[in-house]
């Protein structure tokens, strides 16, 4: 399929994976809108920056009105509320659900009437749902909810197709805060992962673009995790 003249809206532009999808789609000829809370940081050539906060429905409505018609929508923000369960703060849990679940629901609400024929949505889940770990309960729950949301919206918004991507550990910039411990974390991850490596933003971008383009895939979660959920 040709990406020429296809309009792709990506929300959660602060994510390293988002930026890679935006660059790859633009290089393939798509008209790309990259939306997030800090659009001044989205300076890639040929990509239109817009404001969107998944915790603020009015900003998502305004984005939909500004964009008008579209072919594809990808939402991949995350606001993890990790840590000991006994210290969990309600506001942090609400932000985590806004970024992954409630915000994407509101996006779908405002964008649904605007899809051209063949339109599709990709939501972002994550391996934590299938491999729960201590101090990651909120992450596991939001990611799990995304997989069910993709199934429910595939039925509710049909014929707009709705799928989810579930990445494993990906070198997207999200782990840079580990500092020197990052290399060791990636080495240990690669050791146990059936693919024997961590993921790249290119791996996830290719899977996302293929889900958007394939006209007969809907209601599916595609695991781009190197088999991590099986290890
Ligand atoms: N990287 C991995 O190893 C991995 C593993 C499993 C799943 N995933 C999933 O894949 C997706 C992309 O991951 P990533 O590593 O590229 O991203 P990331 O580094 O986790 O960044 C996510 C970005 O979401 C943005 N965000 C948070 N709350 C938002 C809100 N309310 N509205 C709009 N944007 C908001 C933040 O950017 P601003 O602060 O600039 O707004 C943040 O930098 C996420 O859903 C993540 O959970 C990633």
UniProtKB/TrEMBL annotation:
<dbReference type="InterPro" id="IPR036291">
    <property type="entry name" value="NAD(P)-bd_dom_sf"/>
</dbReference>
<dbReference type="InterPro" id="IPR057326">
    <property type="entry name" value="KR_dom"/>
</dbReference>
<keyword id="KW-0560">Oxidoreductase</keyword>
<dbReference type="Pfam" id="PF13561">
    <property type="entry name" value="adh_short_C2"/>
</dbReference>
<dbReference type="InterPro" id="IPR002347">
    <property type="entry name" value="SDR_fam"/>
</dbReference>
<feature type="domain" description="Ketoreductase">
    <location>
        <begin position="6"/>
        <end position="178"/>
    </location>
</feature>
<protein>
    <submittedName>
        <fullName>SDR family oxidoreductase</fullName>
    </submittedName>
</protein>
<comment type="similarity">
    <text>Belongs to the short-chain dehydrogenases/reductases (SDR) family.</text>
</comment>
<dbReference type="InterPro" id="IPR051122">
    <property type="entry name" value="SDR_DHRS6-like"/>
</dbReference>
């Amino acid at each position: 399929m040709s990406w020429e003249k296809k309009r792709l809206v990506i929300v959660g532009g602060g994510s390293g994976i988002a930026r890679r999808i935006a660059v790859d789609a633009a290089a393939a000829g798509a008209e790309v809108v990259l939306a997030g809370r800090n659009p001044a940081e989205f300076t890639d050539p040929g990509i239109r920056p817009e404001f969107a906060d998944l915790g603020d429905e009015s900003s998502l409505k305004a984005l939909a009105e500004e964009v008008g018609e579209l072919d594809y929508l990808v939402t991949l923000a995350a606001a993890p509320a990790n840590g000991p369960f006994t210290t969990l703060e309600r506001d942090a849990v609400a932000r985590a659900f806004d970024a992954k679940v409630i915000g994407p629901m509101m996006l779908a609400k405002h964008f649904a009437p605007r899809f051209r024929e063949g339109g599709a949505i990709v939501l972002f889940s994550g391996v934590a749902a299938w491999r729960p770990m201590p101090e990651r309960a909120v992450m596991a729950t939001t990611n799990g909810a995304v997989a069910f949301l993709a199934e429910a919206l595939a039925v509710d918004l049909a014929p707009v197709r709705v799928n989810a991507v579930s990445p494993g550990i990906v070198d997207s910039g999200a782990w840079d805060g580990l500092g020197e411990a990052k290399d060791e974390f990636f080495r240990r991850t690669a050791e146990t992962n059936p693919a024997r490596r961590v993921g790249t933003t290119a791996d996830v971008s290719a899977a996302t673009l293929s889900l958007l383009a394939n006209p007969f895939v809907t209601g599916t979660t595609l695991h781009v995790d190197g088999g991590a959920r099986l290890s």
